[in-house]
Design brief:
Shape: flat
Number of strands: 0
Distance between the termini: 11 Å
Largest sheet: none
Number of domains: 1
Radius of gyration: 14 Å
């Protein structure tokens, strides 16, 4: 169950990081409310997952999912530059997440 919570926490991190773009510096009410709620939910789920997973693994997976997802959505939704190198580094992030999972002992 900890891994499910951790993946959901990582997906929420993707959501709130992309949501920050829509807050316009936290000057827009509803995007700001949803972004702050996403931050809180993501952190709470990370904390729950870290109760039974090593913190280095939990945090690394959380950050990896968030960074890879935000970078991919930034390119797909926000018009950020797409290059072979950027896509390759996103793949490396995902490989690292899988590696942390595979070597966690859980």
């Amino acid at each position: 169950m900890a891994w499910v919570l951790l993946v959901v926490a990582g997906l929420l991190e993707v959501g709130w990081s992309i949501g920050m773009k829509y807050t316009e510096g936290f000057t827009r009410l509803w995007p700001s409310v949803f972004t702050v709620a996403g931050i809180a939910a993501s952190m709470l789920l990370l904390a729950q997952a870290a109760r039974s997973l090593p913190i280095g693994t939990a945090y690394g997976v959380w950050v990896g999912i968030g960074a890879a997802g935000a970078a991919a959505l930034g390119m797909a939704v926000l018009g950020e530059p797409v290059s072979l190198a950027r896509c390759g580094f996103i793949v490396l992030l995902l490989v690292a997440v899988i590696g942390l999972k595979a070597t966690s002992g859980h």
